[in-house]
Design goal:
The chain is mainly alpha-helical. Helix content is 53%, strand content 5%. Helix 1 packs parallel to helix 6 and helix 5 runs parallel beside helix 6.
Length: 205
C-alpha cells in the first residue's frame, strides 16, 4: 500500500491535483504505531516469561534448565526496547548477535531481526505522509515550501536512518523528498520481495 500511495503521489500527469484525493490517499496509510506496538509486546513477553519461570510452569522449563533467571529475561526485554529506540542506521552493529546463552539467544536473535524491518516500514510511512502533506501545501499555496518545517514528518529524524528526510525544491517547481542515505541500509534488512518506497519526485502544482 505504501508503494501504491507513493506512485499516486509521483504520477505524471499528476493524480493528486485535488485535496479530496489527498485526504483519501492519506486515509489508506496505517495509523497504528508499529514501534509502540513492539514495545507493548516486549513488555508483555517479559512479564509472561518471568511469571512462568517463577511458577515453574512446563513452558518455562527450558529457561530453568539453562539456568536463565527472571533478571536475565528482564535484561533481554530491556535490550529489545533499546533496539526499537535505536535507529538502525545510527548503530547497525547493535543489531548483530549478542553472546547470550541458549535458548535466550535464539529468541533474541529471531526478534532482533524484525526490528530494523519495522523501523524501515515506519520510516517509509513517514516519507509518504510527508509527501502527501507537502503536496497539499503546494496545491493550497501554489508552491512547495522552501523550508519544510511546517511539515513535522519532513524534519523529524526517521526511525530507521535516524536522519531528517532529504528535501529540495527544483527549478521547475517540483520537489523531491527521500529517506536520507537509506538505500544501502534497506538492502541489508528488507526482504528482496518487499516493495521499497523510492525517493518521491512530487510534480509541480
Amino acid at each position: 500500500m505504501l508503494r501504491a500511495a507513493a506512485e499516486a503521489l509521483t504520477a505524471s500527469p499528476p493524480l493528486t491535483n485535488g485535496l479530496e484525493f489527498l485526504d483519501a490517499l492519506e486515509d489508506t496509510l496505517a495509523t497504528e504505531d508499529t514501534l509502540a506496538t513492539m514495545h507493548r509486546v516486549f513488555n508483555a513477553w517479559t512479564l509472561v516469561e518471568q511469571k512462568a519461570l517463577m511458577e515453574g510452569s512446563h513452558g518455562a522449563s527450558e529457561w530453568a534448565d539453562a539456568g536463565i533467571t527472571a533478571d536475565d529475561i528482564a535484561g533481554a526485554g530491556d535490550s529489545l526496547h533499546q533496539l526499537v529506540n535505536t535507529p538502525y542506521g545510527t548503530a547497525p552493529d547493535r543489531f548483530e548477535d549478542d553472546p547470550l546463552e541458549e535458548p535466550l539467544h535464539m529468541v533474541m536473535d529471531n526478534v532482533r531481526r524484525t526490528i530494523p524491518r519495522a523501523q524501515a516500514a515506519a520510516a517509509q510511512r513517514q516519507l509518504v505522509r510527508a509527501g502527501i502533506r507537502l503536496r497539499r501545501i503546494a496545491l493550497e499555496s501554489g508552491a512547495y515550501p522552501i523550508d519544510p518545517s511546517s511539515v513535522p514528518e519532513a524534519v523529524r529524524p526517521d526511525p530507521f536512518t535516524g536522519r531528517p528526510l532529504g528535501y529540495s525544491v527544483q527549478s521547475d517547481g517540483s520537489a523531491i523528498i527521500a529517506l536520507d542515505g537509506a538505500d544501502a541500509l534497506l538492502e541489508q534488512v528488507v526482504l528482496k520481495s518487499a516493495a521499497v518506497v523510492p525517493p518521491l519526485d512530487l510534480p509541480a502544482p
